Amino acid sequence: MPNYEEKAGNLFRRLAGEFIARESNRTSLITVTNVLVRENGRELVIFVTVLPDAEEETALSFLKRKRSDFREYIKKNTRIKTIPVVDFEIDKGEKHRQRIDEISQGI
């Protein structure tokens, strides 16, 4: 049986994907890759990848500006009592994994 962090992570991953799809200007592709739930759901770190890579800083700045809007989106679309403090980060682990795949395939 999945624990609370796993269930909450799946819920927040889906909500973050929906929110980003709705709010972004589509000049870059922002994909939610992972969600880290901390402090029993009081803190939330959403990891994303951005294509093209040149748009990472712009996309991350956009997401950080939209944190309070995303908290409101969570409040409207869930019935949880405590809305977590949200932060967005670039998923460096996913970028490293992709680079390792490229090297191993000889690209």
Characterization of this structure:
With 107 residues, the protein is of the alpha+beta class. It is built from 4 helices and 3 strands, in the order H-E-E-H-H-E-H. Strands 1-2-3 form a 3-stranded mixed sheet, sandwiched between helices. A hairpin with a 4-residue loop joins strand 1 and strand 2.
Chain-wise SSE layout:
Layout: H1 4-23, E1 29-38, E2 43-51, H2 56-65, H3 67-77, E3 85-90, H4 92-104
Parallel strand pairs: 2-3
Antiparallel strand pairs: 1-2
Helix pairs in contact: 1-3
Short description:
This protein is α+β, with helices and mostly antiparallel strands and about 110 residues long. The protein has a single domain, classed as GMP Synthetase, Chain A, domain 3 (2-Layer Sandwich). The chain is built from four helices and three strands.
- Assigned CATH superfamily: K homology (KH) domain
- Share of helical residues: 40-55%
**What is the topology, as strand order, of the major beta sheet?**
1-2-3
- N-to-C SSE string, H for helix and E for strand: HEEHHEH
Strand content: 15-25%
CATH class: Alpha Beta
Overall CATH architecture: 2-Layer Sandwich
Biggest sheet record:
3 strands, mixed
- Rg from Cα: 15 Å
Mean pLDDT, to the nearest integer, reads 90
Q: What's the tally of helices?
A: 4
Total count of domains: 1
Class based on secondary structure composition and strand pairing: alpha+beta
Measured between the Cα atoms of the first and last residue, the distance is 40 Å
Annotation, overall tally of beta strands: 3
- CATH topology group: GMP Synthetase, Chain A, domain 3
Q: Give start-end ranges of low-pLDDT stretches.
A: none
Query: Per the principal axes of the C-alpha atoms, what is the gross shape?
Result: globular
